[in-house]
């Protein structure tokens, strides 16, 4: 019997943040990870831990929530952005707008730091262990279940200096953005697209060629890399009585896909809901839903801009010398006027994932949010 044990399916940031929070409160935790290592789907990817949506610094916020920050985090307060015509704009702030972090199993990565903290607190992390059924107390943290956006490109080594470059051009990244991130002689270049997935190779080729032309991109030993993002406002984020966290629930920044902060935050909230015996749906609705619906409105507005719209905004930024952190922070505030736009935004945006929320309290199936599986499980007590 696994009575007082809490099991977690998935050792991503969401699952590990939940494990850390539970272990800090003295609970016995077992994390199942499908892969043989943490961060397997990212292996060396650079990502931005966004620091603009709150006044409070994200690293301080993590530490206050009991999540360690013993990972390499390069503060970024400057980026070069290009429009579709190759014009260059400087985006700057006297505040950090994001921290560049590395994902995957290596030293100094976000995933390794979370894993080490969890293990240090006595959490057992079982690799190559797929959680298919969850009996007893637990949290579901298995990552994205559909592709609403994809980011595809290369990891590589480079003699280039550190930097952050972005291109806003629908011919490179439809309704998204192309980016180049370099830190300590290594880099990632990606087209992050919200449509046109079937032509991903074409968009990646164009992205690489554009960065070569605009900033002299030099890639040594390039390795193809890509992944999906699932942005979905769930009706409920509880399956069979188990909290669902991170992208498994669809928690994401709809505008640009900065999902790490949502993942960690939701993991902490889910753990707190178990510890305090309170409804997880109440916790995430209070803290995650407002920024999520706001980012959904932002996404719908962004989708109207097109290349001329991006250029107009970049030109205004240049002319008025806007502070990037300030602008982004305003953009991410759920102003009441934006609330009015939500019904419209909902008609413009729909996730490729159906809401498969399962309300059966005795359901033990990790996958019942995952469409195809329903029929097979109906006979086993999940679907009825
Ligand atoms: C290319 C790319 C670039 C990105 N860039 C950024 C960025 O710059 N900034 C940002 O904030 N976000 C970024 N994101 C999004 C961010 O990576 C995710 O939002 C975040 O990793 C979600 O965390 P998670 O813990 O919910 O899921 P994941 O990180 O996907 O972890 C889920 C884990 O569960 C495991 N698992 C799955 N099924 C099972 C099972 N049945 N049993 C056991 N284990 C299971 C998986 O192997 C995986 O390790 C990016 C995503 C991609 C794909």
Count of β-strands:
16
Radius of gyration from the alpha-carbon trace, in angstroms: 21 Å
Cofactors, ions, other ligands? flavin-adenine dinucleotide
**CATH level 1 name of the largest domain:** Alpha Beta
Structural class: alpha/beta
CATH architecture of the largest domain: 3-Layer(bba) Sandwich
What characterizes the major β-sheet?
A: 7 strands, mixed
Q: Report, as a whole number of angstroms, the end-to-end distance.
A: 26 Å
What general outline do the C-alpha atoms trace?
Answer: globular
CATH level-3 fold name of the largest domain: FAD/NAD(P)-binding domain
**Approximate helicity band:** 25-40%
Strand order of the largest sheet: 6-5-11-12-13-10-14
Please describe what this structure looks like.
The protein is an alpha/beta fold and 384 residues long. It has two domains: 5-70 and 107-147 and 233-295 and 349-378, FAD/NAD(P)-binding domain (3-Layer(bba) Sandwich), CATH 3.50.50.60; 149-229, 2-Layer Sandwich (D-Amino Acid Oxidase, Chain A, domain 2), CATH 3.30.9.10. Helices cover 34% and strands 22% of the residues. The strands form four sheets. Strands 6-5-11-12-13-10-14 form a seven-stranded mixed beta sheet, sandwiched between helices. The radius of gyration is 21 Å and the shape is globular. Flavin-adenine dinucleotide is lined by residues 9-15, 32-35, 40-41, 45, 47-50, 130-131, 141-143, 151, 227-229, 246-248, 252, 257-261, 263, 366.
């Amino acid at each position: 019997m696994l009575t007082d044990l809490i099991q977690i399916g998935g050792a991503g940031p969401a699952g590990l943040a939940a494990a850390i929070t539970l272990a800090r409160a003295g609970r016995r935790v077992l994390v199942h990870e499908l892969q043989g290592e943490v961060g397997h789907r990212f292996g060396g990817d650079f990502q931005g831990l966004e620091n603009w949506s709150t006044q409070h610094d994200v690293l301080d916020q993590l530490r206050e929530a009991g999540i360690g920050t013993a990972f390499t985090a390069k503060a970024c307060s400057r980026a070069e952005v290009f429009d579709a015509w190759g014009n260059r704009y400087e985006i700057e702030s006297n505040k950090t707008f994001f921290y560049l972090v590395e994902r995957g199993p290596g030293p100094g990565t976000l995933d390794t730091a979370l894993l080490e903290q969890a293990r240090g607190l006595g959490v057992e992390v079982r690799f190559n262990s797929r959680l298919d059924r969850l009996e007893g107390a637990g949290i579901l943290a298995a990552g994205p279940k559909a592709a609403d956006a994809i980011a595809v490109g290369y990891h590589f080594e480079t003699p280039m200096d550190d930097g952050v470059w972005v291109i806003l051009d629908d011919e490179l990244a439809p309704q998204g953005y192309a980016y180049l991130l370099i830190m300590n002689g290594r880099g990632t270049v990606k087209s992050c697209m919200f449509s046109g997935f079937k032509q991903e190779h074409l968009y990646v080729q164009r992205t690489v060629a554009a960065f070569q032309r605009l900033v002299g991109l030099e890639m040594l030993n390039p390795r193809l890399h890509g992944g999906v993002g699932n942005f979905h406002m769930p009706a409920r984020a509880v399956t069979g009585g188990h909290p669902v966290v991170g992208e498994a629930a669809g928690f994401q920044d709809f505008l640009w896909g900065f999902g790490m902060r949502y993942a960690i935050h939701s993991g902490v909230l889910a753990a707190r809901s178990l510890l305090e015996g309170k409804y997880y749906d109440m916790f995430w609705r209070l803290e995650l839903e407002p920024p999520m619906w706001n980012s959904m409105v932002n996404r719908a507005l962004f989708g109207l801009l097109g290349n001329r719209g991006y250029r107009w905004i970049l030109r205004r930024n240049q002319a008025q010398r806007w502070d990037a952190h300030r602008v982004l922070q305003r953009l991410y505030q759920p102003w009441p006027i934006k609330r009015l736009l939500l019904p419209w935004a909902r008609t413009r945006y729909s996730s490729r994932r159906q809401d498969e929320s399962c309300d059966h309290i005795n359901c033990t199936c990790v996958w019942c949010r995952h469409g195809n599986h329903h029929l097979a499980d109906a006979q086993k007590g999940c679907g009825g």
